[in-house]
Design brief:
mainly alpha; 155 residues
Length: 155
């Protein structure tokens, strides 16, 4: 489940950035809460959102496919065929972008955050945060680590 702490962040600005990356044309004009994204995911989002993630965050095609847990040719076919992603993949894309934007907010810049994603982290047993994003439950583990960093807990 996507989580965003309203007490410490500007949700409207965060959601606007999220929609921009995902491709706002597929979404309603206003997003009032994270629950709106669940409804949107049930309708399916355009596969082009995966390419938008790759472009915005500077991920390689291989890394993007790994994050989505599908093959590069599968992503290529989805985009070529202008496919709407199923609910599971739609929610996975939304949660991933939500986490990545949160990470930028916590770390301070997109460049520093994408670098941080690729560095071994002792709080993660020496794993790189990006490696966890490819595993079930990994998005939540990275989100928890970012939360600890945000609140100044030694991590």
């Amino acid at each position: 489940m996507m989580y965003y702490d309203k007490t410490n962040h500007n949700d409207a600005a965060h959601y606007a950035r999220l929609l921009q990356i995902l491709g706002a044309a597929d979404f309603p004009d206003t997003i009032e809460s994270s629950f709106d994204f669940i409804r949107i995911a049930s309708l399916g989002i355009d596969a082009r959102a995966i390419v938008n993630i790759q472009d915005y965050f500077g991920f390689t095609r291989d890394r993007t496919a790994s994050l989505m847990q599908v093959s590069e040719p599968t992503i290529y076919r989805w985009v070529r065929d202008e496919k709407k992603l199923d609910q599971r993949h739609s929610m996975q894309v939304i949660e991933l972008v939500n986490l990545l934007l949160y990470g930028i907010e916590v770390i301070g810049s997109k460049e520093h955050f994408t670098k941080w994603l690729g560095l071994p982290n002792m709080a993660l047993g020496g794993m790189e945060p990006v490696q966890l994003l490819e595993l079930p439950g990994g998005i939540e583990k990275v989100r928890q680590l970012l939360g600890r960093i945000e609140y100044g807990v030694f991590s």
